[in-house]
Amino acid sequence: MQALIDKLETELEDDIARVEAISVACAMYEVISIGTSVTGLYSELFTLLLKLVSCTLGQKMPTSSWSRRRHVMQQGEQQQIPDPCRLSTATLRCLQAQAMREGLAKESDEGDNLWTLLSSPSTHHIGVCSLARSMAVWQHGVILDIMEQLLSSLTSSSESYRITGTAFFSELMKEPILWKHGNLRDVLILMDQSAWDSNATLRQMAIRGLGNTASGAPHKVKKHKQLMLESIIRGLYHLARTEVVCESLKALKQILNLLTDRDVSFYFKEIVLQTRTFFEDEQDDVRLTAIFLFEDLASLTGRRWKIFFAEEIKKSLISFLLHLWDPNPKIGVACRDVLMVCIPFLGLQELYGVLDHLLDQDLPRVRDFYRQFCVKLAKKSQEILWILHTHSFTFFTSSWEVIRSAAVKLTDAIILNLTSQYVELLDREQLITRLQALRRDPCIRVQRAAEAALQTLLRRCKETSIPL
């Protein structure tokens, strides 16, 4: 086996998989599959085979090597187009199965799907993260050896191998025991550099690693807070790739939990403004994480940003109120929680009683909830009620039927509770036009809500003697 390891290492020089590397992997498979112990050589075998998987991603098998793969590929696969990455993955899978029998690794949280993820260029990084989580943390010596051998991957000339290494280390960053005995301090610096890389997947994995440092080495977050915050916040501007944005939001949430308002003060305004832009994102995970982060930011305002944050809450209130009925129930719960945290900034503690109804096993009807909410709000602040109205039009064209319906029902409740002075300020022509358009909405709930809101508007105008 040692001879095969040496041969494979030679075939993977310069982080490029040469033709003979596939033949060596075939031979390794046959040796391991008969139950040969891997305990003494596991670290070397694992890192080399993972490197081979990485370096063969998306490649095609040379015709000359086709016959050599037959023993490795499972029955039923041999008629498919030759794929060296799948062959490499099969050998790594065989190694991991033997390692589990010897107590060197544990079952992956992805199960058998791990190997499909690992061998596809689009999901390889997800598979690597799962593979890293399957490392047996109690085997300190084994993992430390793997870490030492994989460190060079973070500066490899092969972009694919850099992604593999960064994804693997991103999961290890959360383990305190590895921070204590490993070389993760060096990894942290390299992760920070990769967080600025032009490759979106590499950035995502690097940002995940920075965020996971909060679990593995909280003291490092405090020590390198400026470096880490700047790299992660930068990820919020990568609008073309939502996975980078979502990873940045999650990493910020992890890191901010360890910092004080004074630590964050310089970046607070930027984080708040960027976080707010994702409340309406189409991806559930992005919306949910942005709302969670906004809630955490409430505890970091300090004196300097308290007034600013209150103004941002006023602008965000419409999103939180409408997404109480989000298609994803987790987002509805998150909106209820963030409202509970935010309303004291506006001096609206009287609204706690209305929000408490959202804790009931049976949620209140949307129309009833909004009417109760607006009745209370109208008595306390007509200004905020008006702000809710001015921000509601955007949601009339939401892609979610439930949000369009909720927006119209909230508009109905607002109109019902505005004072005559504010009713006069309504752009009645525009509002009537929009509500009439919603009467032809494909969703029957939206049609009925629009009709009811239109009647409320006409009645209020009549009551205040305002011509239409």
TrEMBL record:
This protein's GO cellular component annotations are:
acrosomal vesicle
Q: Which residues form the Maestro/Maestro-like HEAT-repeats domain?
A: 188-457
The cross-references to InterPro entries, in alphabetical order and at most eight, read: ARM-like, ARM-type_fold, HEAT_Maestro, Maestro_heat-like_prot
Under Pfam families, the record lists: HEAT_MROH2B_C (PF23227)
Q: What is this protein called?
A: Maestro/Maestro-like HEAT-repeats domain-containing protein
Top-down, what is the taxonomic lineage of the species of origin? Eukaryota, Metazoa, Chordata, Craniata, Vertebrata
